[in-house]
Every structure is written in C-alpha cells, then in structure tokens.
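Contributing new complexes? Match this layout with 6-O-phosphono-beta-D-fructofuranose.
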Amino acid sequence: MGWEILGIRDSYDGLFEEGGVVRLDRKAVSGITHQGGTILGTTNRGNPLRWPVKARDGSVTYEDRTRDVIEALADLGVDALIAIGGDGSLAIANSLAEKGLKVIGVPKTIDNDLAATQLTFGFITAVETATDALDKLHSTAESHERVMVVELMGRNTGWIALYAGLAGTADVILIPEIPYDLGSVCEKIEARYARGRNFAIVVVAEGSYPVGGQPLFKQTGSGQKRLGGMAEVVAEAIADRTGRETRSLVLGHLQRGGSPSAYDRLLALRFGTAAVRLAEQGAFGCMVALDPPEVHAVPLAEAISKTKFVPLEGDIVQTARAMGICMGD
Ligand code: F6P
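Output block (do not edit by hand):
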C-alpha cells in the first residue's frame, strides 16, 4: 500500500523515550507469527489517562496525558493509530479517538472479556496451556490420591477457568460470576471419593470469591495490592473440612506465554488485516471484532462499554453442570 508503519515501544511510553519509536518494515515483522509476547514490548502501568507524576516531596499525582500522546503522534507525522490490547488499552484508544485521533482497536487479551467480540486473541492459547497443565496435574493427583487446586487467570470473568476446566476434566470450577459455597465444593469432592475416584481437580479463577465474601488481594513487597491467592485458601479449607490431602498451585504468567496456537495466529492475522482494511476505508473509531464467520467493525465506545461475563444460563455452564462439574453453587 506504500504506507509507512511505525511501532511504539512499551505501549505509549515509547513516544516519550529515546528510541521508543521503531520502523516496522517487512524485515522487522518477518518470522514473528509463531512467537508469543510482542516484539514492541508492553506495559500495563503508565496509562496516559492517569499518568503518575512524582512531586519533589515524593508524593504522586495523576495527569491526563492523552493530549501529549496526540501531539507526539502528530510530530511523527502519524495519520492513524492501531491500538492492540484489552479493556484498559482500548479505553485509552477510545479516549484518543474522542479527542480526534484516527484510531482502530484490535482486541488482544487472554481474558476474553470484551463483549463486542466473540473471541480476543491470546485466549485460546491460554486455554490450551491451562488444559495441558490440568492434564499433567492428573498424574500427581491420581498417584498421590490428592485434591489438586489450581488457580488460573481471570480477574473479573471465568472464561479461562471454565474452558480449561471443562477440557481438562476438572471436578470443580470456581469463577467470579458464581460466588462459591465451600460446602457444595466439599460435597462434590466427597461424592467423588465415595464413588471410588481417589483424587479431584479443582480449578479456581483468580477473581473468584465465596458467597458473601470478596476476591483476595496480596500485598506485594513494593506495597501494591495484587489479585491472587484464592487457590491456597480454597485448598486449605478443603483439607480442613474433608481431611483429604490437598495441594494448591498458581499457574500464573505461564498462561500468557509460549507459542500461540494455530487458532490464535489465524485470529491475529485476520484482525490485523481487517484493521488495515478499515484504515484504507477511513473507518476510524472502531474495533475489529470476531462475529463468526466474519470479522466486523464495531464502534470503539461500544466495544469498551461492556464486560463479557460468562453467561450463567449459557450452554457452556450448562455443559459443565451436565458433566457433573460443581460450579461452586
Ligand atoms: O489482563 C490480563 C491478565 O492476564 C489478567 O488475567 C491478570 O489478572 C493480569 O493480566 C495479570 O497482570 P500482571 O502481569 O500485571 O500480573
């Protein structure tokens, strides 16, 4: 098309740093389809809508730096921006679009929690990694006759836990959409042991919480609060209540790495080429979205307005229940 493509390193940070803007020519992007992560680097801090500014006394205030982003892009002679990311990144993209920048969004998050698209890329790879981990956990669970409790990612939604839990034949799947009752969880485990199955696999989405309770946050060394730790809590409670030998683990960032699945590669390529088509047509302020069998454009404002929660009456939850999986309720 004769267009010049620039990549901004580390989200918008690269706009304000020496060497932070790189040319993405044919050579720069060749051979990356099978790679995980991003050759541009990324960050989920330093949001230009809430840019931290440190005062001399050490106190931090937050500024909206979206105008600076728009100016920096104009200085570079950029005509349009393609923003790739999840709800946070696309909210920034929408704010830039509202201020007049020509923007197209591409949905990328392992969480799959954007309502306007059937799938976000990264999700299926994460599900495959988590399913593989559940398969492998069966060895220890079965050999040692243990209850294995695994924490998977999913801050507000239980998509990874539900898909991987089903594919990996978990006995219990706890998701943020269904507050759990430990009594039901333990009942399910005991019923399984009573049937002669001497192990159980419990999947816990990191944002899950008990009926009447709250998601769990851990204090980090630097004083930040970080979501996580519910698998350990659930494992201890199961051990206390059932007397069964129980272990917990957190799969963590393994879910966000490795070579993308064939499906994710295809989806990323489809989204990328669709974004370029939109730019060619001058259709800005949109996000590309999977609406099978096609990729369509949806307004960015609409795309960020709704979180896609697991539908409780949907067929996937029904499938889990029909398989006898305890959903925590
Ligand atoms: O948004 C994607 C996500 O993977 C969430 O599921 C998870 O809670 C979060 O990122 C983890 O972020 P960090 O890499 O900052 O620990």
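Reviewers usually confirm one structural detail per submission. For this one: The longest strand covers residues 147-152.
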